Amino acid sequence: MTELPTFPIRRQLPGVLPAEYETLRERGIGRVTLPTSVPAWMVVRPEYARFVLSDPRFSSDKTNAAFPRLTPTGMDKLKYCAPFMINLDGPEHMARKKLVLREFTPEALARLLPRLRVAVTEKIDAMLGSAAKPVDLAARLSYPIGRRLQSMFIGVPEAELQQLRDNVWNLMLSKGEEEEREAAAVMNGHAIQLLKEKADNLGDDLMSHLILHEREKHGEIDWFKLAPLMMSNAQGTHNTSGTMISLGVLTLLSRPQERAALLARPDRLAVAVEEMLRYFSINDGTPMRLALEDVRIGDTLVKAGDGMAVPTMPVNRDPAVCPFPNELDLQREKAPRHMAFGHGPHKCPAERLVPELLKMVYTILFERAPSLTLAVPEAELTYKYHSIQAFGPAELPVTW
User: Fold this and answer.
1) d(Cα 360, Cα 371) in Å, to the nearest integer?
2) How many CA atoms lie within 13 A of 104 on its CB side?
3) In this predicted model, what pLDDT tens digit does every residue of 187-215 receive, in sequence order?
4) Full DSSP string of 14-38
5) Pairing of strands 135-136, 397-399
């Protein structure tokens, strides 16, 4: 009997599609095994992926005991928290998401981007001011910018964001009910304390706006219910944005002639950024769903209770997405219709913000340091997962 591939399927290089995905290309769906030894379905065809991620018969509720899990008990610890938006379905999910979507309107981004430009420029100038070279651009620029964006967007100092992340990690590592309860109490207590401090010092950020909304609608604030919205936004987004900064810089360093042409044409750079998001598809290990009913996908019957994995990389490498999908073509005439930010009700709302951040970083960086170059041969670079989905350079040594 042929052994099923284990999902998530790990990459050897950021841009190389693992061969396991291609074995399912013709049918578009096949079986995989999760790290918990539980079988699940995996879809790799764009139309199937859009169907699974948008049809209400596929649930995102990770607290459901039947939900496909990557760890045996990690999701059980969510019982100590109010529901996280990402784990909600239907009207309850959309009611919460509408509050967050207000932070990504053109008007909201117009307020955020000038402040973000100042922060990005400061980080770049700080790196370029280093007396010692080479400099690890990943550690000195990519992830600091990711953390700074997160801090500005949520409205919480970077040190407190790190503590939020550490508290969540401590809960995940805790063992036994007593230890779990203690870790959960620390985590929730710290989050609620930050929210109350924020309530006394409101600003132009997500948590301030949510606090104002709760006051206006309910007259009082359920701090416990509000805490998960802050904790979820404090998690992996700095890793994904930081990884894309590194991968984009590496791509542009390896193509100096194309880089010059793109930087001279912001409209063309915008298309190139979307192409890089499609090609690298770093959010590749987390889109998962649970079938609530028997559903037919193509000629395959998915039964109620079956788990679904929807990795974005093979979906974005399908020939239906763009010509020669396994090529990174920075000169495409138009931006490909990729799914790097997901699809359906749970699609990442930062789909407009992240490309603007990437264009900003690449433009300012190469304006400030046109002689920027890798300090080692590209073949000597090593790569690692900075989170479950963010696979990029472990280090990116540069000089100028």
Assistant:
1) 18
2) 15
3) 999 999 999 999 999 999 999 999 999 99
4) TTPPPHHHHTTTTTSEEEEE-TTS-
5) antiparallel
